[in-house]
Amino acid sequence: MLVLLPPSETKRAGGTGRSLSLEDLRFPSLTDARRALADDVVALSEDADAAIAALKLGPKQHGEVDTNRELWQSPTLPALDRYTGVLFDALDAASLSPGARAFAGEHLVIHAALFGPVGALDPIPAYRLSHDSRVPGRPLKRHWRSAVEQTLAAETGLVLDLRSEAYVALGPAPEGTHFLRVLTESPGGVRRALNHFNKKAKGEFTRALIESETNFTTTDQLLDWASDVGIRIERQPDSTDLALLV
């Protein structure tokens, strides 16, 4: 089983690990693409005004340029601990048991705009780059889409895609992947997609999945487990999509 998460704009600063080594990251087929983009982002940071425009930084975010300039030298944290924000706060990685963290390291992948998909425990530095950032001469969709698509296509087993559509565009998951949509249902039975609060639901669902420490191999197994623990997930008609109802 593989679970794909989006990243977060907000990240913890600092770190306890050694500086970035691309060889420590999952999916080594992406190493060259990672190095080329990281070098371009560092080079961009030498021109603060250009970097601020490319990264769409507000006045209180200008320090992110310095963060990118130190990309190769700054300390690292496991990706699962690096990201903050609604989804990752709900997942609350710091309180996971050692067994659950190990399970996350094997089955959870976070799709970073800078590094492509990385394992949950892969050591990464703080950085600033979003799916819609404009790195001169290197459009992110063109840079990542084919490489990430080929990399994910090599994965076998059940794949759950919890990414936003913006990150799916940077590398579609294999055919047969279950894209998870978060829906709410009114008393009259009308369903609608959640916006901001879908991140919290995805974080809580991911935590429950990690804590189960179960490598589900079929959709039926996943749905049976969800029903047993009080999580409402349904297949969507004429689609491999799943709906998480909250």
What is the element layout, followed by pairings?
Layout: E1 2-5, H1 31-44, H2 48-55, H3 63-69, E2 76-78, H4 79-82, H5 86-91, H6 98-107, E3 108-112, E4 116-119, E5 123-125, H7 140-153, E6 159-161, H8 165-168, E7 178-185, E8 191-193, H9 197-212, H10 219-228, E9 232-235, E10 242-245
Parallel strand pairs: 1-3, 1-6, 6-7, 7-10
Antiparallel strand pairs: 2-5, 3-4, 7-8, 9-10
Pfam families: H2O2_YaaD
GO cellular component, one term: cytosol
Protein name: Peroxide stress protein YaaA
Question: Main traits of this protein?
Answer:
eight-stranded mixed β-sheet, globular, 246 residues, 38% helix, 17% strand, two-stranded antiparallel sheet, 10 helices, alpha/beta
Explain what you see.
With 246 residues, this protein is an alpha/beta fold. The chain has one domain (2-245). It is 38% helix and 17% strand. The chain is built from 10 helices and 10 strands.
